[in-house]
Amino acid sequence: MSDQLANLTKEGDVSIITLDDGKANVFSPSMTANIDALIDEAPRDTGSLLITGRTGMFSGGFDLKIMSSGDLNEINKMVKVGFSLLARIYSYPRPVVCACSGHAIALGAFMLLCSDYRFGADGPITGIKSQSQSFQRDS
């Protein structure tokens, strides 16, 4: 596997971003920066953008190691860049398609919602489970 957490390929006028960190495809700051750079490479005036993950895993959402670290600066940074990425996908000037290749949890599910079209396979879990996590700061 390369140092890239996601890669860009092109088939005709379709730019394809594939998420593959070898694990849960979490939206860490480095994954988000990688995707942002790939979106910069995709043509904005023709074609469409397809976002997918590897077989069995679209994305597990935010990086839970960072989320549970207690480092509020890192958590805030990750959340801001994550939701900035969603805004960028939502406002992309060409059609955005998410091909949900597997589980899509939390931010992964939000990415599906921000795309113009979304497709998924039977079986994988898609959901927003933040309420069931204990991310509240102790008093």
Question: How would you portray this structure in words?
Answer:
This protein is α/β, with parallel strands linked by helices and 139 residues long. The chain has one domain: 2-enoyl-CoA Hydratase, Chain A, domain 1, CATH 3.90.226. Helix content is 32%, strand content 27%. The protein contains four helices and eight strands. It has helices at 29-41, 64-67, 72-90, 107-114, and strands at residues 6-11, 14-19, 48-53, 56-59, 96-100, 102-105, 117-120, 126-127. Strands 1-2-3-5-7 form a five-stranded mixed β-sheet, with helices on one face. Helix 1 (29-41) links the parallel strand 2 and strand 3 (48-53). The chain is globular. It starts with 5 loop residues before the first strand and ends in a 12-residue tail after the last strand. The mean pLDDT is 92.
What percentage of the residues does DSSP assign to strands (E)?
25-35%
* CATH hierarchy: architecture: Alpha-Beta Complex
Distance between the termini: 42 Å
- Biggest sheet strand order reads 1-2-3-5-7
- What is the helical fraction, as a range of percent? 25-40%
